[in-house]
Structures are given as C-alpha cells and as structure tokens.
Amino acid sequence: MLLIACPHCGNRPETEFRCGGQAHIARPEAPSAQSDEAWAEYLFVRKNPRGVHAERWCHVHGCGRWFNALRDTVSDRFIEIYPMGAQPISELQSEARA
Ligand SMILES: [Zn+2]
C-alpha cells in the first residue's frame, strides 16, 4: 500500500487521501472581464503530464487539511510535500510547471 506523508499526521495509507487536481491555478483578478474562452480554460483545462506534476491533496479521512505535492505520475512517487500557498523547493519544480 502506498503511504503518503501528511505534513500534519505523518505517513498514512493512500486510501485516507483525495487528490484535488492540479496545484497553483490562480483565479483571474477580474472574472467578468475574461472572455468566455479564457474563463472556460480557467475552469476546465488542466495539465495531465507524464512525469512530475504539482497537485493539491487533502487528508479527507484524517486531519481534513489540504497540502501541495510534487508527484511523479509514472512511478506514483511523491517527490515533495509542501504547504498550501507555498512553492516547491525541489529542482524539479520547473518540470512540474512546464
Ligand atoms: Zn493529516
């Protein structure tokens, strides 16, 4: 079983977590000024890379708190876990945002 290191609870089984999708998506400052295409892209278009991906995770069956993680989608290995609102410090961060 895959263990995920919750920053608040420590290593816990993957079944206690839920992935919240891609991390670091900023809401546009003026939503009403966005074109329909730009707003639809903000709402629906997400990266789906093969490799390192920055994701939001929630420990839904534990502390209930959110955190960010860099995860390799090929190996399912968690490379880095970091707080919401922060940026990853790993040298792989540029790959995750590409
Ligand atoms: Zn937790």
TrEMBL record:
A UniProt-annotated Pfam family: SoxD
Superkingdom of origin organism: Bacteria
UniProt protein name: Sarcosine oxidase subunit delta
Organism annotation: Methylorubrum suomiense
Gene from which this protein is expressed: soxD
